[in-house]
Amino acid sequence: MRKTKVILTLFVVLFFIGIKHVSAVSSVNSYILKNGVVPASEQINYRISMQDSVNNGGIKMDFKAGKPQLVIVHDVGVEGSKIDNEITYMVNHQEDAFVHSFVDGNQLKTIAQTNKIAWGVGPFGNRYAIQIEQLRVDNKAAFAKQITSLANWTANQMIQYDMGKPKLVSINSKSLDGNLASHENISYKWGGTNHIDPVEYWQKRGQQYFGQNYDMNQFSELVTYYYNKNSSIKTAHYQAITNQINVNYQAIINQTGRNDGLYTGGPWRTTAQSLTAKERAPRYSRQQVTVMKTAQTKGVTWSEVALTNGQTYWVDSRGLQLLDTVTNQINVNYQAIINQTGRNDGLYTGGPWRTTAQSLTAKERALRYSRQQVTVMKTAQTKGVTWSEVALTNGQTYWVDSRGLEKNDRPLNLAGVSMQQKQWIDNNLNNVKIIASQNNIFPSVMLAQAITESAWGQSELAKNANNLFGIKATSDWHGATYQVKTREVAAKNMTVVDYTGKKISVKKGNSYYIYANFRKYRAQADSLKDYTVKIRNNYPITLRASAKTYQNAFNGLQNSGYATDPHYAQNMIQRIEKYDLNVLD
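Above: the chain sequence. Below: its structure as tokens.
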């Protein structure tokens, strides 16, 4: 905690003034009540992660009695600082110290959950108290507003947590014998800390602006005023909660024509904390929320919701739009045709229609892609409607009503292919479809290359090394290797060492043979996966999102130098068309 505070032993005199002095009439309190100074509304934005034992090394952050029993008042100890700067500093150094709230001459901000302990006043005080820091203000009106806000907030904490009427702790007993204290009180009562705030700050500001020192006794009187006022008002207006249940579903904040409040501590007017809205729901309009509880008060249904920033509030359920629940979602992999005959289905992102905030409106219409072949990756249900997540040939993925698809069961054209070759296709086809789809690669391109470069899985490399693409063992390969004689085509007139160890001259376009080390895999599926790494890293132009068609993919490979054979792309395209491999795309 960033504070420039004078240690306890240097201010014994201030202690006796701050603790023992009782003013017959408080000039500060009189000014506040006479002028009707209005307390600032509490702004809640929980930013302290150290209250979670997961983040603090397993330390339990529960109060000794299960709830706070005391409010402790601090001041930051430095002049001229700003509330947001102090909060940011504390958040960034919360592993050292933090309090629950801050107050200046205009705002009161809570940054830590008040039902869990803070680290601001030593081990003895921490286990009992909600703690608040004051910024040092520099004018009369700001000081009056600050004290008003502080007293009102303190009274509300006492009401909310049933601490009883305000009572200053004593310094003569080690037991908890009150519910209100300054940091100075705790230093003398329990130790573990040596700060004496806010004595000096209150004395100087009280004397400067009101001609009288301000102290904890006067403050206790003002807290008592707000305690009595707020208790009588709030008790009279509390509403009973009925039919409260735990739920778990998604909704959208819909504030069209509304201006609902967001409440903490319960639905509106059910607790002291919930008499005033912390925020307005229109600020979060169209945001997706998780509904955790529902409850009723005099015929009004309320929902406790969790925002995307982690904050939880109660809101009138009429200000929410419920989202459909997704059930029976499963991963699949098969081909289909978009069939929009007599239909005009929407294409949705983020989930099936009305299951997320993103999916409330269609991004496109399926009619635009009618008769296009797609890969179905997932299916799911919402209220009896089955949805499919599909990948278009351009690489985009959408959710569409499954009734707007027809399954593409057209098989590969394997006429003239041997039984051994068909068996190899059957063994690898599912892996080809899954691995290609996961990596934005045309399955037809992957399979055509595998057929050509492995001779339908019958090449020496394929059988002895599970290497379907002739990928060589370069210096970055740390796995097993396999050596084999291979044909190369000269890209220019050159001299090479052939497989016999002799130097030979080769003209551009002519073939020659060498021995080379190739990668050896445990299974042919591993070769398919390794192939995708090579394509994505070295030939991204051939990915579905870039190439759009398998023809463009092969031409991109050719132009990028994937193969030395000048007819490589043409041969691959012809192979796809001969065996109808494009039905996989």
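The chain has four domains: 8-236, 242-322, 327-407, 419-471+522-584.
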